[in-house]
Specification:
By secondary structure, the protein is mostly helical. The chain has 4 domains: 171 residues, no CATH class; 215 residues, no CATH class; 142 residues, Four Helix Bundle (Hemerythrin (Met), subunit A), CATH 1.20.120; 123 residues, no CATH class. The protein contains 30 helices and 4 strands. The protein has a two-stranded antiparallel ribbon. Helix 1 packs across helix 15, helix 9 runs antiparallel to helix 13 and helix 14 crosses helix 30. The protein starts with a helix and ends in a 9-residue tail after the last helix. It is found in: Late endosome membrane; Lysosome membrane. Its main location: membrane. This is Two pore channel protein 2.
Length: 684
Amino acid sequence: GAGADNDLYINQAIVFIEDAIQYRSINHRVDSKSLWLYRWYYSRTCQWILSLTITVILALAFIEEPSSLTITSDVRYRLPAWNPPCGLTESVELLCFLVFMADVSVKSYLIGWKEFWKNKWLMAYILTLIVSFADWIVSLSFFCKESVRIRRILRPFFLLQNSSMMKKTLKSINSTLPEMASVLLLLAVHLSLFTMFAMLLFARTKDNQQDKEWVVYFRNLPDSLTSLLVLLTTANNPDVMIPAYSKNRAYSIFFILFTVLGNLFLMNLLTAIIYNQFRGYLLKSVQSSLFRRRLGIRAAFEVLSSLKETPASAQQSCVGVGALLQVLQKAEMDSRCKQAIMRSLKMCSCDQLSAAQFQKLFEELDKDAIKQHPPSPEYQSHFMQKVQFAFGHPYFGYLGNVVALANIISICVVLVMDADKQPSERDDFFLGAINCFFILYYLLEMLLKILAMGLKRYLSYPSNRFDGLLTVILLILEIATFAVYGFPHPGWRPEFMGLLSLWDMVRLVNMLIVFRFLRIIPNMKFMALVVTTLLDLVKNLRAFAGILVVVFYAFAITGIMLFKGAVVPLGNTRKKNVISWCSVQAGLIYCLLYVLSVHLICRWAKIYFVAWWLISSVIWVNLFIALLLENFIHKWDRRCQRESLSDIEYQRTVELMFRDVLEEPTEEELMEKLHQHPHLHLCR
C-alpha cells in the first residue's frame, strides 16, 4: 500500500543521505531488505569487525614460522622464538577467511550481479580468497612444514581492497608509471654507460697493490653495476672512491660526474615528472567525491518527492519539510550538521522544498568543522576583573614559555656538568631545588589560568590540556620523590633503582616542557602555514600510509622466504668468523649486509633489493613530495584569504582544502547519472 511505499522512500532517502555524507556510491540495491543489509554492513560494529579481521590476519606474520619476534634482534643473544603448534594460526586464518567470504558475498549481492561482473576489485577479491584457501589446505596437508606460503604475500590485498581511497590512489599511481618508466630507462642508460667507463678506468693491472678499486668494487660487470647503483643512493659514498682517489686524485672526477648527473639531475627530474603527473590527484579525487555527495543528496530528493503526501498540483518536484525532518532524525550524521540543518528548516517559512533549496540545506556538510571555545567567567569584583585580565593576557603565556626555556637550559647545564662524574660524585641538590621551583611555578600558572579563563575554557585548548597534564604528572612525581628520598639538601644523592630512578623520571618529564613552545606557532604565519600543511598531510593521507603498509608487508614476507637462514648465530662455524668480525668492526647492521652480499649463493637476490629501493625510496618518496608540494602551494595561494581568529579553530579535512576551486555538477549531469542507476527507477 501507500504506507509501505512511503516507508520504502523514507529508508531510501536515509541511505542516500548517509552515502552522501561518507562519499559512497549510490549504485546498490534499494529494496527494503537490501537497505537494511546495507546499513548493517556499513554500521560501526560491522566495519570494526572487518578492520579487526584485517589487522589480525596481517599480524599473524609476527608469530608464524620463521618469525623472529623476540626482545632482541641480535642473533647472538636472542632466545629461540615461540613456534605456535600446527593448526593454531591456521585456525585463526580460517576464521578470517570466513569473515572475508561473508564480506565479498554481501558486497556482491548489494551491487547486483550485473555490476559484479564489471567490478575488477571484487573479482580479484574472490580470486585472492580462492588461492589463499587452496594454499591453506596445502599447509594442513604438509602438517605446516611447507617452506613457501603464497597466501602470506596475498594478505595485504585484504587491506587494499577495503579502502576506496587506497584504490583511487593506486589507480593514480598506475597512471604515472609510463612517464616514470621513461626517466627510469634514462637512469638505467646512465648506470650502464658509467659502468662501462668504470670497468675501463679501473681495469686490473700488473701491480696488485694498486688494484684495490678493481678487487673490491669493479671486479666484474655485476659488481661494477651494483657499486654504482649503491653510489646512486649515496650509501657507499665516499668509500667506493677512496682506493682510486688514493692512487690518483683525478679519478674523483669520474665519481663527481656520476653523482652530479645521477643524483642532482636525473633523480630530481624524476621528482619533477612525478609531481607534474600527480599534481591534480587530490583535486580530481575531491571533485569526484563532491559529485558523489551531490548525487546522493539529489537521489534522496527524488525519492522523497515520490511520497504520496506530496501535493499533486505542484508544477515541479518538491519535498515536504516533515518528510525531511523524519529522515534527518533517523540518518547517521554529525550532530553539528544535523542541528544546523534543523535550525535552517525551522527558519524556513515554506512547507515544501524545491531541489535547489533541498541541496542548499545540505551544503552544511561542506563547511568547516568549527570548534568555538567557551566564554570566560564574568566576575563582578573589580579586583578579580584585573586579575582575570592580567593572567588571561597572551603575555602571561609568553612568560610561561620563557620560564620553560629557563627550565630546559638549567637541566641541560646540570646534565653537561655531571656527564663525566660517577653517580657517587654527583650532588643533585642544585637540580632538586631548581625542579621544586619550576614545578611550583607550573602549578601556580595552571591555577591562575583556570581562575582567569574558567575550567571549561581552559580545557578547551589542547595546549592547556597538555600543560595541565604535564604539571599534574610532575607534581605527583615530585611528591613521590620527597616521600622516598626526603627534601633536597647539600650532598643529596637519590639512589639509582632499576632502569630509571624516580629522580631520573622527573628530569625526563621536565624535558617535555619544550613542547610548550609549539604554542607560538600560530602567531608566526609562515611557520603556521608549514606546520598546518604537514598536519593536514598526516591526518588525510591514510590511503598513502595504507599502500605503504601493503608494500612493506609484501616485501617483508618475500624477504623472509628468500633469506631465511642467511644470518645464523655464532654456533655455525662456517660463518662464525664473519659475524664476529662484523659485530666488532662494523656493527650488526653492516654484519647483516655483509653476510647477505657475500654469502648468498644466488646473485639474483640483488633484484629484490633494487626493486625495494625503486618502489620505496624512488617512487614512493617522490609521490609524497608531490603531494606535499601541491598541498603547500595550495595553502600558500590561500594564506591571505582568511584571518586567524583566536577563539575559533577550523578543523579542515582534505575534502575541504580545495572546496573553493571545485566545480558544482549541473542538474543535467546529476539526473543523467540517476537515470543510469541499475536499481533505482525514477518517475521522471
